[in-house]
């Protein structure tokens, strides 16, 4: 995967609140692209979002405070984190507030993008959209920002053609944009247009053959459309590639209990899911 693919995969895990998986992907990207500081930011973000590793996240993010493209996002992250510590460092918060005012004065499209990304992933969708709009005023053809704005619109319940057009523009401008493709998929899923969602996912599977996400989303799409046979087939296919896939295990349990009425096998699978969650996502 290239840098952009890694970033999209990391963001995907964050949206699904798989923060330990998010961090593992960020660390893998850091090892491969040692000069790309955005992966260090995403690593720090994973540490703070799970709520259990705040001090570790603060240490990681503090090292990025002087990075021009990340300064605004890092400052917002640190303020968010310090407010959630058991003992709040009020002096540090005052210092960060002052730094935030300075960052606003030198806002760029890229710094606004990372600020919007943090706000989006931490659940502050309205504020994320504000920063997205600021970024697009500075750089109207910022493909990543167009995609992120589309995701904000989806989270705000705006599933209109205007939202779909944001993802389309991102793909026109950015080319190979996994995040924008997944935005299109989510748009069609929310509008119950499962055939359109599947068509996009088939295209994504060809374009990103090493990424398992298209199969996972295709499985979820078939499940939402009550296509049990296709759902079970994809769950088994995913588990053959990734035996501890939490999404596929969850769906497999649903098939066993709801569709097949096999409660014994479902209970065994549920035990395996519980142990897998403890190993892979202990914060969930």
UniProtKB/TrEMBL annotation:
GO BP, sorted A to Z: intraciliary retrograde transport; protein localization to cilium
Pfam family, one: ARM_TT21_N
Listed SUPFAM superfamilies: TPR-like
Span of domain Tetratricopeptide repeat protein 21A/21B N-terminal ARM repeat: 10-231
Keywords on record: TPR repeat
Protein name (Swiss-Prot/TrEMBL): TPR_REGION domain-containing protein
Extent of the TPR repeats: 109-142
Record GO cellular component, one term: intraciliary transport particle A
Similarity comment: Belongs to the TTC21 family.
